[in-house]
Predict the structure.
Amino acid sequence: MIKSILGHPVILTRKDIKESKSIKTDQRGNPIPKSSNWKYAIGRIWSLMEGNRLKLTVVIVSVIISSLLGLIGPYMIGQMIDNKILKKNFEGIENDLLILFFIFIGLSLFSYVAAIIMVTIAQETVYKLRMLLFSRLQKLPIPFFDKRQHGELMSRMTNDIDTISQVLNSSFIQFTSSIITIIGTIIVMLLLSPLLTLLTMMIIPLMLIAMRWITNRTSILYKRRQRAIGEMNGYIEEIISGQEVVKLFTREVRVTEGFTEKNAKVRDISYWSVSYSGLIPKVMNFFNNLSFAIVAGIGGVLALNGNGITVGTIVIFAEYARQFTRPLNDLANQFNTVLSALSGAERVFEIIDTEPEVDIDNSNRNLTIRGEISFEQVTFKYNEEQLKPTINDVTIHLNQGESLALVGATGAGKTTLMQLLARFYEINSGKIMIDGIDIKDIPKQTLRNQMAYVLQDPFIFDGTIRENIKYKNQHISDEVMIQAAKDANAYDFIMRLEDGFDTKISFESTHLSQGEKQLINIARALISDPKILLLDEATSNIDTVTEMKLQQAIERLMKNRTSIIIAHRLNTVKIADKIVVLEKGKIIEQGYQKDLVMQDGMYAKMLKSGDEALLE
């Protein structure tokens, strides 16, 4: 256990190190997904470069040439010392210097070409990676998002991929150059002096042992750091999104304390991860200096004793010994970034490798829905650990064109029934039928394309009002859009805006009221001409005047469509043909409006009391 002087202790045991090597479970003991393997992550990134293999070949060739030119320079300098400077024979030395000048020019030029082309490859690869991640997020089921903070997912899309981009931009060239330099240096050193080469190589086992000890610890710490950053980002996103609630409940101090705790965790883990990785360049510099001392000391003795070692050879060898350890030193300096990128790549591929939402492709893909709906003994739990089902043995039948109002207290299961009909979740038992067909046999896209879902909290996308109303299909004519806006009672307030339908709006727009945003949502639903309409408390939290407009728009929207309404207001419930009263996931009363009124049951009592709170 490493005791942090900054606050949080950072626990690092032998077991942690052992588990990080086996890569079977994470720190919580859960099975680690396939992508939690660095070799696998590197392989996946490599596969994304497939279309750039020719460019990559040019990069590698350029790096090879620049590395070879870097090896030629010291050799020429050594020859000049032995054959000209020590012998005081300066004939032709200007030619040698000119050749050296062009060698170093060529080295710089090929290095620049490799860097520029590699930036192009890196950005194209990162583009593909972002597209893969974003596309997979669109294909994942709703339960996936229920279990994760949105900020944490954003962290994978931004921070993790940016770190990968940084490494691809620089580290690939560095790695390739280092390998070529090491191999070339060893060959030339062996040709110059096998004895000095052997003495220089003696430090490698010590270097590897030191590196292994450090990297075993930094790999764990960097994974924890990435996870902690994701958690902190999720918390930030949550608190920023809920600022109104935070202020209403005067929780500013408490949420700041919560952020302080998460921020301190990131700080402490970052401190230890960077501190450990910071040992690497220091250790490498030590071995670099040790290598130079061995060459200078033993080489000098051999030169004085006339053992075939010249001053020029010592100079060349000292430079090659430096070149041999310098690539390792360069890699060590980037090691923390590489570790962070690999940890980020694991997190990105964990999502990309997540099983997408399963759909079918059959003859029902082109099915035109009429709108007859049946829930047949439907039971549903959100997860297996749930003791009581959210929906318990529910049976409902709705004819084509009929409307149904779901009534019950918060948590009764009203919204869940709608989500099950839209197949956001799969039922545990029973059947949900549309036009006599099990919805499991209808492709989700076919089902949802003929369904409109208006939520309690209207969602507005960043763009114009025109783009928001035409969200389903931007090619719909303006005439159809305008008629939808009129039917939704949105046209008048839209035209009062300076830019009309081209007014820029967003989810956070303050120049539109909640009711006006909802009217835009109603227009969006109308323009899609749905066969089934789902209204989830669409008239809640709206002023009386706007509610009347909404009520009129909803009645137009419901006309000749099978509709299911969740409402707490009696005037909204009254327009429904059928009523279902739910309590803790069970139906306690259902029937046609007029029949329930005559039965003098719970719904009739609600109506008689005139107290809308009874519906809540």
User: Anything to note?
Assistant: The mean pLDDT is 81.
